[in-house]
# Entry
Amino acid sequence: MKKALKIIGIILLVLVLLLAAYIAYVLISYHRIGDQQLPIEGKATGTLETGAEYKVVSYNIGFGAYESDFGFFMDGGDRARAWSEERLDRNLKAIAGVLKEQNADLYLIQEIDIGSTRSYQIEERTYFTDALEDMAYIFAQNYDSAFLAYPVTQPFGKARSGLMTFSKAPVTAAERKEVPVETGFSKFLDLDRCYSKHRIPLTNGSELLLYNLHLSAYTSDGKIAYEQLEILLNDMQSEYEKGNYCIAGGDFNKDLLGDSSKYFGKADIEYTWAQPIPDSMFEGRNIALIAPIDESNPVPSCRNADGPYYDGQYTLTIDGFLVTDNVEVIFADVIDTGFAYSDHNPVEIYFLLK
# Structure
């Protein structure tokens, strides 16, 4: 009996030591990437000029895993990884095809993995560089996380992911701009955060500042996303006051319509993670929020990934754009894919530079 208890005690001690070692590994390996100058790759031969109409498309691709039958564990689903490497490959090709069909002048893509457990270590950037030819492109790494050993039956693992921007006109400079994240345990779930900033010269001597963003989602109260947005708005306002034009687009993780249920109906479960952006954030600034919507045929830009897509699931619009006053938005809408490839639909605006 004593021998059995001793063995049990040793096993428990080993388990405690392993757990302590893992916690130490997570804490020690946590780091932030910081501000960076970004390399500009590809060749772009187009130009941007005032008075001409252009198109920009933004798409959070959910690392290629969020097919219509996918539910993510951090949203209430039961999946931490894509269904399989084969299905992931097929879905990424479909996403690249959707983007190519848009024939946009500018693309802003979020959640592209460059070597993650959840996406079978696939280098996802090549799907888009192959599809969007004759464009300059820039990648900004959003996060590089430690191995997350949860869920136990299918660990999320290590995640390396980021933002990718494409332009038909040459980009002269690009940089990663770090934004604040929570300091508590949530930082291990929401990971690192940034936005990328790109300078595109115009024929009139000014510049278009193009921003790609993906604000925080998994936070305790959502306030950190407002702090992140405040930094971006200050950056855009500063560039506007220098005589430049600014467009920012991406996933805000905020209800850009104020109350999306007015358009898409009430969800079957109450959710509070996506709050509206206060109007006060734009006071004293020459910047407008563009929430894409066709009121005659409203389509949401996002579904809650608590399980496979179903009628009555929480849907809303959290993807959109910010523009300075010298940018005229002609049309803004959501491109309806039926959430076949991601928990997001792409969003688009047609614009001209005044």
